[in-house]
Design goal:
It contains 6 helices and 19 strands. Strands 1, 2, 5, 6, 7, 8 and 19 form a 7-stranded mixed β-sheet that branches. Strand 14 and strand 15 form a beta hairpin. The structure holds flavin-adenine dinucleotide. Flavin-adenine dinucleotide (FAD) binds next to helix 1 and helix 6.
């Protein structure tokens, strides 16, 4: 199959890019599984225009229907590898077929680094384990929470959560961040515990964490902030080198350093938020459609 614009990743960034590219009348193909998007199974309350918490799964489904209604072809599968064939980018798909396109948009997102302790999976998705303080802060008003992680992001999130929660613990066996950040967190009332979380406990919902020093600390929620891992490695096949932190660097038109390759959403870096993903998706979709039109002429 040949297209003007090929988009890899069916999360909010990729779907928004597909909508804008298809409306520009570029022949657009979107490859990805919405079920694997970070937005799938989430509940959104900080996205513009919604009066109530919205289901991320529903929004993704509506978005795919929208993209298809504007003429985008959606393939519910993964891209296994990328290559170049003359002016075209070629993606090999998991069913053995391939798609070639003049412009490529990488919208492959990130996955959060997991803590890997008992209880983490059981209490994820609305039962007390979260990977995003900015997303879920409001659900923990006047509650007790633990921030797990020893890097700058975890410390900053702990300080931030003091504006919502009545008590905030910051838990890690080691801390690798500036004293200024640690002091700011302490001043805001964050209680630091130098230990590892070995288990997340609860009964339907989180009610405590067990620590490596034998202590059990009562909490209503656990925020795990250990960073993210993207699948940006895929682009190395087309001579695009991800940054040291695994992100793909883009300019204001969402163009990467390789002509014809654009990127958007979580894969370009923080903030990991739907609003930023769709904003960049819009830009990448328009830029890629424009690029494809130029090289076609
Ligand atoms: C539990 C949770 C709650 C959240 N709550 C909020 C919130 O309240 N508000 C908010 O703004 N944000 C929230 N977020 C963050 C938000 O979901 C992300 O910022 C957003 O989904 C990023 O969009 P994206 O399209 O860049 O990446 P993703 O949504 O992750 O989509 C990337 C897609 O690319 C696919 N992909 C990767 N590699 C390949 C490949 N080789 N071939 C094909 N497809 C591939 C992935 O499988 C995935 O489907 C939350 C995230 C989580 C995990």
């Amino acid at each position: 199959m040949e297209a003007d614009v090929l988009i890899i990743g069916a999360g909010p960034a990729g779907v928004q890019a597909a909508i804008h590219a298809a409306r520009k009348k570029a022949a657009t193909v979107l490859v990805g599984k919405t079920g694997n998007s970070a937005m799938h199974g989430t509940e959104l309350e900080n996205y513009f225009g919604f009066q109530q918490v919205q289901s991320g799964t529903d929004i993704l489904r509506y978005g795919i229907e929208q993209a298809e209604s504007f003429g985008c072809t959606v393939l519910d599968m993964n891209v296994m590898s990328l290559s170049r064939e003359g002016d075209l980018f070629k993606a090999a798909l998991e069913d053995g077929t391939s798609v070639s396109a003049r412009a490529l948009i990488v919208a492959t997102g990130t996955s959060r680094v997991k803590l890997g302790v008992p209880g983490e999976k059981e209490f994820a998705n609305g039962k007390g384990v979260s990977y995003c303080a900015v997303c879920d802060c409001n659900f923990y008003r006047q509650k007790t929470v633990a921030l797990v992680g020893g890097q700058a992001e975890a410390v900053a999130d702990a300080e931030f959560m003091t504006r919502y929660a009545s008590k905030v613990y910051l838990i890690s066996p080691t801390f690798d961040t500036s004293q200024v950040l640690m002091d700011a967190a302490e001043k805001a009332g964050v209680v630091r515990l130098d230990a590892a979380v070995t288990e997340i406990l609860g009964d339907g919902k989180v009610n405590a964490v067990k620590l490596s020093d034998g202590e059990t600390v009562a909490v209503d929620g656990v925020f795990i902030e250990l960073g993210g891992k993207s699948s940006a490695d895929l682009v190395m096949d087309i001579d695009l080198m991800p940054e040291m932190d695994d992100t793909i660097k883009v300019d204001r038109s969402c163009a990467t350093s390789v002509p014809g390759v654009f990127a958007c959403g979580d894969v370009t870096g923080k903030p990991w938020q739907v609003a930023k993903a769709v904003g960049e998706g819009c830009i990448a979709g328009l830029s890629a459609a424009e690029y494809a039109k130029k090289v076609k002429q």
